[in-house]
Amino acid sequence: MTLLSLDGVSRVYATRRGLFGRPVAVRAVDHVSLSVEAGRTLGIVGESGCGKSTTGRLALGIETPNEGSVRFDGAAMPAPGTQPWRQMRARMQLVYQDPLGAMDRRLTVADQVGEPLEIHGIGTKQDRQDRVAALLADVGLRPDLGLRHPHELSGGQRQRAVLARALASDPALLVCDEPVSALDVSIQAQVVNMLTDLQQARDIAMLFISHDLKVVRQVSHQVAVMYLGLIVEQGDPEAIFADPLHPYSRALVSAIPVPGPRRRERIVLSGDPPNPADRPTGCAFHPRCPVAIATCTHTAPPLSRMADGRLVACHLADTHQRKAA
Amino acid sequence: MTEPLVRIRDLRVDFHGLPALRGIDLDVMPGEAVGLVGESGCGKSVTWLAALGLLPNTARVSGSVALAGQELLAAPPGTLDRVRGRRVAMIFQDPASSLNPVQRVGRQVAEVLRLHRGMDDAAANAEVLRLFDLVGIPDPRRRVHVYPHEMSGGQNQRVMIAMALAGGPEVLVADEPTTALDTTIQAQILDLLRRLQQETGMALVLISHDLGVVSEMCSRVCVMYAGRIVEQAPADTLFARPRHPYTSGLLAALPDMVGPRRRLEAIGGNVPEPWNLPPGCAFAPRCGHASAACAAAMPDFATVGPSHEAACIHLENDAMVSA
């Protein structure tokens, strides 16, 4: 069952180049269509400025799309700040990279985990205390840690506390924006395992946004690769990470440093990450693309379905796949 | 056998009586690429800040750091000034905060050349152009006149590398040089560092939390935990056959890019705080092989293979690791 769907959504910001420059429209997200199934995880990967975080904010209704529509659990997304939106937000929660920034430093962990219950008027006071204790146990925090303040916890414990709070209103969807990027390797593995366990136990759907392809592969059932506000490749993570078809996905996958002997040839892209305010014509990736042809400079490739079911936006995807076959 | 270029012996650092480094022995040979890996607070950065006299006065430093036989730890400031930026250069994670935001980047690199190589303005300016070209900054003639905020993070890191190369260093210490950069830009910078190291013959010390980055760049790797080196080995050996339970734990905690997906094997617990170090082996409370003996004494380094040492009394046995 589709829980969340984004249908051709775009988000355009107006920005100025310099103090007196004329306003430029920046398409942070450009006609993106995605869907997340109940209890499944969709991973979004890409580099800074590709629009992956904006996509997450659109999914939660924090941002309103300029074009397209967002539907959650069969209903259209209400306008942000309205009563129906607040009610819907109880069922969709955000977890992001910096847990200290996401918490109130003056409140104890237990008070913060209980806050969503109060806000959404769930249960009696005694019920709420029991729920908080159960939530802390679910994320592997000792009861005494609930009495501490955020700065008294380690980074991993804080991210667990943020998760406990996100789970308080029993959400159907978690939007996780770089949830483990600030954590050390050994702690990262603890939190990743906990996320997958919680998903199974509670049947939560996740939109998992990260620049770390290794972590995304670990948690995702579907993956979308974004570049300059566009989805360039989308499909089964095994297919995409084993044999990426879009030249950008290929470069991204090949650039991941892995311990031990190198298994595939590294593709080093030339040029800087692109500026969303200065989008190239045609395919947005063509100035950095090692295989671009003349068509790429003037015609943007549509996102087309390949033989194996994945979607790729590249004029050469067909030829690449046929060559590989 | 050649003499090590940098020879660190029993380097210890305390901050307000709390140990940050608890006895580091490390050699860097001329021209080699050594990686230091470990999690936050393990002391991988402090080692080099201490070695170069860059720690604040609150730090108590003891032990010995010698650069080609010359002791640095008790050296007068004048000696250190002739070493830092010239014979040993350092680059950091965040290039934007290491550069002067109100000075054009070309001038900042030229300053190093005037200071360390005694060049006049004309010679320095010509050398800056050569260095910018060397580190792959496009259109150097124009780029020397821009300010750091006008360049991307990757280009700023290239400027930092140009500045580090300006003194013609024998050792480049790169502290998380690509951590703040996007994946495709990280690949560019790693490529550049590898090429420069081969071309100039300088030694490279790469400090990173990323086992993948270290594996790709370094021929030898030291794994640090709670202020000590716990294992060191040639990179191929370390990643194929880790012997210290912490090293194998780190590798098992990392998701794979190929092969079937498996549940990650997390290392339980947390890195101990400096004020709460366990007795004996600092990793014992998180270690699956720990026994009473682990808490009794700090384990000594044992040679477990060619150039391969590990500080553990319950070394991972090979059969189990390869299984």
Shape of chain A: globular
* Nearest-integer average pLDDT of chain A: 91
Q: Count of helices of chain B?
A: 13
- Globular, elongated, flat, extended or rod-shaped: what is the shape of chain B? globular
CATH superfamily of the largest domain in chain B: P-loop containing nucleotide triphosphate hydrolases
| Corresponding CATH architecture of one domain in chain A | 3-Layer(aba) Sandwich
Could you tell me the number of beta strands of chain B?
A: 12
What is the top-level CATH class of one domain in chain A?
Alpha Beta
Poorly predicted runs of chain B are: 318-323
**Taking strands numbered 1, 2, ... along the chain, how are they ordered across the largest sheet of chain B?**
6-7-8-3-9-10-12-11
Characteristic terms for this protein:
heterodimer; A: 325 residues; alpha/beta; Rossmann fold; 8-stranded mixed β-sheet; 4-stranded antiparallel β-sheet; 12 helices; 23% strand; B: 323 residues; 2 domains; 12 strands; 35% helix; globular
Can you walk through the features of this model?
The complex is a heterodimer of chains A (325) and B (323). By secondary structure, chain A is of the alpha/beta class. Chain A has a domain at 2-91 and 171-241: Rossmann fold (3-Layer(aba) Sandwich). Chain A contains 12 helices and 12 strands. Chain A has helices at 52-59, 83-89, 99-102, 109-119, 125-138, 155-167, 185-202, 213-219, 237-242, 247-254, 294-298, 317-324, and strands at residues 2-16, 23-37, 41-45, 67-72, 75-76, 92-96, 173-177, 205-210, 222-227, 230-235, 304-305, 311-312. Chain A has an 8-stranded mixed beta sheet, sandwiched between helices. A 4-stranded antiparallel beta sheet of chain A has the order 2-1-4-5. In chain A, strand 4 (67-72) and strand 5 form a beta hairpin. In chain A, helix 4 crosses helix 5 and helix 5 packs across helix 6 (155-167). Chain A is globular and about 70 Å long. The mean pLDDT of chain A is 91. With 323 residues, chain B is an alpha/beta fold. Chain B folds into 2 domains: 6-218, 3-Layer(aba) Sandwich (Rossmann fold), CATH 3.40.50; 242-321, no CATH class. In chain B, the strands form 2 sheets. An 8-stranded mixed beta sheet of chain B has the order 6-7-8-3-9-10-12-11, sandwiched between helices. In chain B, strand 7 (171-175), helix 8 (183-200) and strand 8 (203-208) form a beta-alpha-beta unit. In chain B, helix 4 (105-117) packs across helix 5 and helix 5 crosses helix 7 (153-166). Chain B is globular, with a radius of gyration of 21 Å. Mean pLDDT of chain B is 92; it is low at 318-323. Classes of the chains: A alpha/beta (325), B alpha/beta (323). At the A-B interface, helix 7, helix 8 and helix 10 of A face helix 8, helix 9, helix 10 and helix 11 of B.
